[in-house]
Write the structure tokens for this entry.
Amino acid sequence: MIDRLGYSRKRVGRDGKPRYTAYYMDLKGMEKSAGTFSSKKEADRAWRDAESLVAQGRVGDPRRGRQTFERYVLDTWLPNHEIEATTRQSYTYTIHRHLIPEFGAMRMIDILPEHVRAWVASMKKNGASPATIKYAKVLLSAIFTTALNDQVTYLHPCRGVKTPTVPRKPRTIITPEQFDVLYQALPDADSQLLVETAIETGLRWGELTELRVKDLAPRSRILTVSRAVVEVNPKFHPDGERFIVKEYPKDGEFRRFKLTAQIAAKIEAEKLGSNDLFFVWRHEPKGKPKLRLAPDPLELGLTEPNEKGRSYRHGTLSAYTAGKCRCEHCRTAFAIYRAGRRSSGKDSPREPRQRETDGHIPADWFRRQVWKPALKEADLGIHVRIHDMRHAHASWLLAGGADLQVVKERLGHASIATTEKYLHTLDNADETALDAFSKIRNRSAR
């Protein structure tokens, strides 16, 4: 193959004066323009400089850096990135919510560190949390790292730009006594078994709700964790569905560990097929209609004046519609009115929303319908998430004397430093140290 050299082409401008356009060959052998100049000498210098940069592998089409941030991200960066569906969903939301409104119309080559610093300051001023700012900036940095590697731009505007510190809050671990109270507050045996399995295995939600009968060896009680399920918006699912089963857990590697005899016996008691899910979403039962007592407007007083300065008696339709009052009494009056219209056939009742699920338990449904009501009834005095069962599993193991490496492998941590964070997290973890201190402190009294 013969390399073709660059050259200058003469043309006449609109003013009748000669102009010279410099041409060179890019890495793919395509002819590109290096600009138009008033003299052949300048044009020749331009194509030689361009060829020199091509020889160093540092340049493509100069126009790439002049495309807008929005076009580059949505047309090139996001579609061509190999990422998980949940990550793509999160990236897409963040890009449209925080990045495009600020940088979308700017050219890639025009975005400088000063612009990124101003954006960080603006987000902080507008009330964005430090965690949100950090995540958005990490994503922006990833975009420009790719742009820099692909020679779309020659400056990384995120380097040296700091974000507000994300405070690390102390980890609160549920105690065995608190767990027992919460366990009794759960509404049924299915949810009790799910939560008990969560705290006895330390599985993540996606691993827990994808467990199948074939994953547990009955005799040895060895559980194999080799898959996880994630829930996404259907537009991010390859087949337009809601759940994606990944043939690997979050850490990318399967793991095996032993279950206690009692939890294994409870799981095995469920008569299921080999490929059946241990925990299945069951259709929400149709609840009984809520009985409401009609409020007495004569005893409730008047609403605040509306934009026209008019007030209405609480517990009336006028207060709800014209007065825009949403107190309990006004909402009850309106609900009774609507129920009466539906029962008389004047209004058609709204069809209940159907959950899109293939049997997997939706995390938000479990959180709203099962977990939060149980927490409210248990009244533990601390905020506990279902994911905190994983934290409790690690803490209880270490507090009971389990080997640190064994706990790391059970939880699937990539680094033992992550597992070490669970040391001394129970509320009585320092009692041994305090007893030792008191023994020496009170020695003189003895």
